Amino acid sequence: MKIAVPKEIKNHEYRVALTPTGARELVARGHSVAVQAGAGEGAGFPDASYEAAGARLDADVESIWSDAELILKVKEPQPEEVARLQRGQTLFTYLHLAAEETLTRGLMASGATCIAYETITDRQGGLPLLAPMSTVAGRMAVQAGAHGLEKAQGGSGVLLPGVPGVAPGKVAVIGGGVVGENAARMALGLGAEVTVLDKSIPRLEVLDDRYQGRMKTIFSTADALDQMVRESDLIIGAVLIPGAAAPKLITRAMLGDMKPGSVLVDVAIDQGGCFETSRATTHAEPTYIVDGIVHYCVANMPGAVARTSTQALTNATMPFVIALADKGWQKALADDAHFLPGLNVHDGQVTYAAVAEAFGLEVVDPASLVR
Ligand SMILES: NC(=O)C1=CN([C@@H]2O[C@H](COP(=O)(O)OP(=O)(O)OC[C@H]3O[C@@H](n4cnc5c(N)ncnc54)[C@H](O)[C@@H]3O)[C@@H](O)[C@H]2O)C=CC1
Ligand SMILES: CC(=O)C(=O)O
Ligand SMILES: [Mg+2]
Questions:
Q1: The CATH number of the domain where 20 resides is what?
Q2: 238 is in which domain, residue-wise?
Q3: Interval between CA 365 and ligand 3 midpoint (Å)
Q4: Residue 314 has pLDDT above 90, yes or no
Q5: Are 243 and 281 members of one domain?
Q6: 161 and 292, same structural domain?
Q7: How far apart are CA 83 and CA 105, in angstroms?
Q8: Residue 295: its pLDDT value, please?
Q9: For residue range 201-237, what is the model confidence (pLDDT) as tens digits?
């Protein structure tokens, strides 16, 4: 199969969808791999390392896209990338469509087959291609939040660990999944006082058992959120309803109950965000202030630590990339019930229920397309 790896073009996105190690695996299986010149530079993989792996370097973005049967990316396609996609091509990347109607309609209009990393499932009920980047983003969320608390950033001037004789800061994490657990773990490591809220009792049981009471676990209700808003120095939004737009859990009115200069880090921004006042920001300008509250809402947090993130992401995507390349999308999805929910759009049709629901579109059962 003809596989292409374009250079990512989202603001400060330095990850790449395939490492030289991955390229070598695909080439050894008889596939042709074209890598856009410079695509791996930001993650520490120079062009020569892809050539040594048997990939072909191509400096021309037009031919990278037009010659490919399977396109491997990291971030959701930007408008100029959507314009390059064609019917008959398969795109494999993060899509986060429920937050992006224009992108959804653009992908439908392209006629291409679009498979999302973030809606592929596993036997344990997890999201194995989201989890590695959620681990990274969760770990980064606390450092972003701690920076936001500094006065020069508009923050309250609280140092999360405190100092001898001065109490530590309070961190609330809403959603105790992969992002939430990793954020909570980093905040504990810094010496902050940490509370995790979740709607899932089994998940709170896991956290309680794992951390032996070192973090508080609270069932997420409107009352609990009111209390967290009043008490916390830093609130991290880490909820997810897979494939769907995030619920808005903190309203603008609630910001008035927060201590001035407190920080909201909305990691769930890629699914639209879980705070009413969240809007996606970039690494170039990651924060803004609403009603005295610092907001950090970067939708591609792992892009900032591209070396670690690229290795973690490609470790997880590689088996699926190999299946797509060896079998083609229809057989690869038909053979694997956990890969099938990755299909979001095919030939103008939406195949993921939560995305169709978000925009009042009809949903087509992906199983009906791969038989
Ligand atoms: N901004 C960025 O760069 C990145 C963002 N993310 C995003 O972070 C979000 C979280 O991802 P994961 O932790 O992997 O998901 P996850 O599925 O592991 O965890 C989500 C948790 O939220 C809980 N939850 C759902 N509704 C809730 C509610 N109303 N109140 C409290 N808890 C609720 C669930 O029970 C679950 O435990 C996703 O939107 C994901 O796409 C992930 C990686 C990078
Ligand atoms: C998950 C996601 O959106 C990212 O890693 O950028
Ligand atoms: Mg995004």
A1: 3.40.50.720
A2: 131-299
A3: 25
A4: yes
A5: yes
A6: yes
A7: 12
A8: 98
A9: 999 999 999 999 999 999 999 999 999 999 999 999 9
Decide if 254 is inside a domain: yes
Q: What are phi and psi of 153, to 5 degrees?
A: -95, 0
- Global pTM reads 0.96
Separation CA 218–CA 186 (nearest Å): 18
Supply 270's token pair: 């890629």
Q: Of residues 233, 266, 270, 295, which has the active-site annotation?
A: 270
Check pocket membership of 94 for ligand 2, CB cut-off 6 A.
yes
Is residue 270 part of the annotated active site? The answer reads yes
pLDDT one-digit tens code per residue, 134-166: 999 999 999 999 999 999 999 999 999 999 999
CB-ligand 2 contact for 133 (6 Å cutoff): yes
Which one from 31, 47, 58, 96 is the annotated catalytic residue? 96
The residue contributing the CA closest to ligand 2 atom 6 is 300
Q: Which residues surround ligand 3, an ion (CB under 5 A)?
A: 96, 270, 299
Percentage of the chain with pLDDT > 70? 100
| Ligand 1 close to Cβ of residue 268 (< 6 A) | yes
Confirm if 231 and 223 have CB atoms less than 8 A apart: no
Q: Taking 90 as the threshold, does the pLDDT of residue 371 lie above it?
A: no
pLDDT in tens, 112-129: 999 999 999 999 999 999
DSSP 76: P
Determine the atom of ligand 1 nearest the C-alpha atom of 238. 10
Q: Let me know whether 90 and 171 are in one domain.
A: no
Query: Which of 245, 271, 299 is the C-terminal boundary of a domain?
Result: 299
CA of 59 to the centre of ligand 2 (A): 26
DSSP 108-171: HHHT-EEEEGGG---TTS--TTTHHHHHHHHHHHHHHHHHHTSGGGT-----TT-BTTBPPPEE
